[in-house]
Amino acid sequence: EEQLHRVYLRVLSENGQAIRSYEKAGFRREGLLRDDVCIEGDYRDIVWMAAVNSGNDQENEE
């Protein structure tokens, strides 16, 4: 069975509720993309987040 090693997402930096939810789900902040998107004429920052499967929860196939 194939497992995902890394999943990433982008979220508006002002969306604190979503960021907290993603952190509770195992995502960690990896970066900030300043003025990355333009919404209705205003540039907004984006938080880059990722969850990485360390392999600790996988069974050994020996």
UniProtKB/TrEMBL annotation:
Name of this chain's protein: GCN5-related N-acetyltransferase
GO molecular-function term, one example from the UniProt record: transferase activity
Lineage: unclassified sequences, metagenomes, organismal metagenomes
Organism name: human gut metagenome
Keyword line: Transferase
